[in-house]
Amino acid sequence: MEWTKHDLLDLHDLSRAELELILKTAKSFKEVSSREVKKVPALRGKTVVTLFFEPSTRTRVSFELAAKRLSADTLNIAASGSSLSKGETVLDTALNIEAMNVDAIIVRHFSSGVPSILAENLRSSVINAGDGCRAHPTQALLDMFTIQERFGRIEGLKVGIVGDILHSRVARSNIHGLTRMGASVTVCGPSTLMPIGIEKLGVNVNYNLDDVIQESDVIMLLRIQKERQQEKYLPSIREYAKVFGIRQQRLQKAKKRVLIMHPGPTNRGVELTADIADGEHSVILEQVTNGVAIRMAILYLLLGTKK
Amino acid sequence: MEWTKHDLLDLHDLSRAELELILKTAKSFKEVSSREVKKVPALRGKTVVTLFFEPSTRTRVSFELAAKRLSADTLNIAASGSSLSKGETVLDTALNIEAMNVDAIIVRHFSSGVPSILAENLRSSVINAGDGCRAHPTQALLDMFTIQERFGRIEGLKVGIVGDILHSRVARSNIHGLTRMGASVTVCGPSTLMPIGIEKLGVNVNYNLDDVIQESDVIMLLRIQKERQQEKYLPSIREYAKVFGIRQQRLQKAKKRVLIMHPGPTNRGVELTADIADGEHSVILEQVTNGVAIRMAILYLLLGTKK
Amino acid sequence: MEWTKHDLLDLHDLSRAELELILKTAKSFKEVSSREVKKVPALRGKTVVTLFFEPSTRTRVSFELAAKRLSADTLNIAASGSSLSKGETVLDTALNIEAMNVDAIIVRHFSSGVPSILAENLRSSVINAGDGCRAHPTQALLDMFTIQERFGRIEGLKVGIVGDILHSRVARSNIHGLTRMGASVTVCGPSTLMPIGIEKLGVNVNYNLDDVIQESDVIMLLRIQKERQQEKYLPSIREYAKVFGIRQQRLQKAKKRVLIMHPGPTNRGVELTADIADGEHSVILEQVTNGVAIRMAILYLLLGTKK
What we know:
Three copies of one chain form a homotrimer. Chain A has 307 residues and is α/β, with parallel strands linked by helices. Chain A is 40% helix and 14% strand. The radius of gyration of chain A is 19 Å and the shape is globular. Chain A binds chain B through residues 44-47, 73, 75, 77, 79, 82-89, 92-93, 95-97, 99-102, and chain B through 33-39, 55-58, 61-62, 64-65, 68-69, 226, 264-268, 285-286, 288-289, 291-292.
C-alpha cells in the first residue's frame, strides 16, 4: 500500500489500509525518539508551520518536536492575539504563509471546517490539529496506536468513551478511526452532553458508567471543560465527578487488563482520581509519547514520500 | 562590485550598484526556496536575532525563514510586552543581546531612528525591519524585485504609490529605491495624509487616482490604518474606499500589463476589492514569496561574505 | 574528575572539584562562541526544553542559544499565561513534557523548591533557571567564571554583594559558590532586606557600603525590584540609590582593579550610575557573554557525557 493523500483532515476520509499504514509508520518512528540521537534526515530542507488560532501548548509542542526530529525547519504562528489577522480572512493568512514556500501547515481553529477550506485552496499539505467540535485526527491516531501497542490489535476490542461527547472532537475522531479498525465503541456521558443521533456513527450509547466499565477493554475519558457548567450543560463539577468520574472502587468491576486513557490535561478528582491517573491501568503518559511518533508518521507520509 | 556595507538601515544609503547586487543575489536565493531541499549551508553557525518592539508576525516569519534556509540559528525576541525592557534603554537591551555573540540583530521599532542608533553602537550587523514612519528597506527591496521580475527592468517605469503617504515607511523606502533605479514615482492620497514638501524626494504628487491609474505601470497600494480615522486624518473608511480604493471599473483605464501591489495585510473592500486582490494584475502573494528571497540576500550579503 | 550529577539544582550540592570542572568546561565553550562557525555537534539529536513559569527573555535566550550552539533541538514553553497549566500540577506538566522523550528541562518557577520536586520525579535532567528566592545556579556560575577570568582565581578574593539580599536567589547561589571556592563574601544592604541569620551561610554582614567598597575586589550589585517599595521594605527608590547606589565619587575609595558586576537588567541611576555601568570597572556585558558559555558547559556535562 502506498500513501496518496495530500492532507490530513479527518479520519473519516481514511481507509482501514491507510490507518494501518500510519500506525505501522509511527511504530518505526517511535524507535527514533528512544535513541541517543533522536533525529533522522527525512524532511531536511522542508518547512513546517504550526498555525494555531486556539491556544494549545501541548499539541503544538508535540508537532514541533515531531518535525524537528525529522530535520524539518519549523515555524510557530500563534494567530490568537497576534498581529496576523488584522482584518484578514483565515484563508488570506494561510495563503500568505504558503507563499513563503512552506510544505505543511498544521492548523488548529475554533471553527469546524477551517482545515478543509484551507486544504481546498492551498498547495501545501494541511494537517488538522483540531477544528471546533469536528475532528482531531492525530489525537485519535495516537490513541489507536496506544491501544494497538498494548493489545496487539484494535479489531474486536470494546472501547468506552466517557464524558462530554457533544463538544468533543477527540470523541468524533476516535469513533471514526476505531470503528473503521473493527472496534466496538460505546459512548457514555450526561444526557445533556450526548448528541442526538450519535448512534448513526455506528456506536452504542449507554448512560450507565458502571455497565460501560464492566464490558470495556479500553476506557477513554474526555476532559471536562469547566465552563460547560456555566452554560448549564452540567449541574456541577462535583456531581459530574460523582456520576462519571473513575475511582478505584468503581474500577474493581473492570476487566483485568483494562486501559484508562485521557487526552490530557486531566482534571484530577474530576474525570478520574489521582491514584488512577498514576495507576497501573493508566496509559496517559504513554499516549503523549506516542503522539510524537504519530505526528512524525503523518509528516513523513505527507511530505517525505511524494515526488 | 563587492558588498561592503555592515548594516541595512535605509535604501537612501545605497548606490544603484548596491541595489542591483541585492536584487541579483535575491534572484539566486529565490531558486533555493523552490527546491525540494530548501536549504543552503551559507550561514551555518551564525546567530540571527529578531528584536521586535512592534508586533509583526508576517515580517518576523519571513526573516526567520530566510535565516533558517541559510542554516543560521535564529532567536525571536518580542520586546513588546516582554520582560526585556524592565527599565532598560533599547540600546542596553541590544547590547545585552549582542554580548551573546550574535551576528545580526533584525530590529523593528515604533520610533524612527532606533536602528541607526543601534548600528552606531553595535558590532553585530543591524537590519532595519521597519522604524516608525521612516524606513522599511526590505519591503521596498522585495517590491522592487517583484517589479523587475515582471518587467525585466525598473528604469523608465511609472510607479504610482497610493494611500497614507504621510505615515508610510513602505512609501518612503520605495521612493528612495525606485527613483535611484530610474523609475518615475507618483504619490497619490488624501491631502491630509500627504507630507508637505514630498516633491523634494523626487516624486510627483497627484491627488486624482484615475489619472495615476491611467499612466502607471505599477500601482502600489498602502495599507490604511483604521485608527487614522479617529485621529481625524480621514473622514471615514467608506469615503476612503470610494475615492482611493481600486475596483474593477476603475482599473479599466489602466495599462494592459499594470501590476497591483500591496504590502499586506490587505483590507479587502478598502484599498482594493476582493476580485482585484485575487485577480490577474495582483502580485500580492508573489511579493510575499520574494520577501524571503530578498531577506536571504540581505542576510547573506551582510554576514556570509565578510572575513 | 568525572561529572556524575544528573541535575543542576543549587550550587550548595556541588563540591569544589565539580565547580572547577564546570568553570574549566565553560572556558573551552567560550571559545566556540567566538568562532566564525559558532556550533559544535556535541548534543545533536538531544531535545532541550525551557519551561518558564516566570517570564524572563534574557535567561531563556541565553539557554536557548547555548543549546543551539551544541546542536540540540530546543523548545520554549512559557507556562505563564499559556494553556499549559489548565488545572494541572507543575509536576503533571513536566511529566507530560518528559513523555515526549526530552533530555533536559530547564525550569524557572516563582516558588522555591519546584526544580527539586521535578528532579525527584523525572528521568530527564532538570536545570534550575531560578526558583523563588532560593537559587539561580547558572547566574552564580557565570559570575564566578567572570571573576576567575579577570583575576585568574577566586580563592582569597573579597566579594561584596550589595542590595536586596533577602529576596535574591542570585545572592544565595553566589554565596554558596564563592565561599566554596575560597572567596570571602560580605553582604550589604538595607536592614529590612537582610535575612536574619545570614551569617550562618559563612558570610560577613556590613551595613556600610563605603566600608564594603574599600575592601572588596568585586562588588556585585543586585537588581532592586521597584515593587519592594510598595511592600514597605524600602522608604523610596531615591533613598536606596543615595545610600546603596554606586557612583563615581564613591568608587574612588575602591581598589584599583575592582570589578563591578550586575546580573541585569540594571536600573541606571539606582543600583549604579550610567557612567559606572559603562565604565572601565564594569563587566556587566562580559557576564552576559559568559552566561552562554556556562550554560553550554552545564548542558554538555549533564547530557553530553553520560552513556
